Amino acid sequence: EVPGNKKQLQSFLGFANFYRTFIPRFASIALPLTELLKTGSRQKTQKGTHKITWSEDCTTAFNTLKQMFSRLPILKHPDLKKKFIIQADASDVAVGGVLLQYNHEHQLQPCAYTSRKFSAAERRWAIWEKEAFA
């Protein structure tokens, strides 16, 4: 069931945030949900709770995160004696990266993921600045 108020959404996002290192592009996926926590996107009810205005983008983000929790990738334990490969990318709203190493079958396997959304000022950067930041 989708969160119906600010407190429920914060609870879900807190849970999701704990697993963010296992989810590629977490910040981009969760963006519609984190935007709901902003003051302008919720209304106070008579009971004092903050009702949120849920959109189709929120439903998509919520369902995508739920699916990813059920099929989290297996992360490789880093071997400090081997080389690391870093892949990074930026979108209009977020930046993310993955730390990779080759496994014993010579296939790249993730060791960790990271991502975060851009601030309002960072969103105004040119695309080359966002990519360089990544």
Automatic annotation (TrEMBL):
Residues 54-134 form the Reverse transcriptase/retrotransposon-derived protein RNase H-like domain. InterPro entries: DNA/RNA_pol_sf, Rev_trsase/Diguanyl_cyclase, RT_RNaseH_2, Viral_Replic_Matur_Polypro. Coiled coil: none annotated. SUPFAM superfamilies: DNA/RNA polymerases. It holds the Pfam family RT_RNaseH_2. It comes from the Eukaryota. This is Reverse transcriptase/retrotransposon-derived protein RNase H-like domain-containing protein.
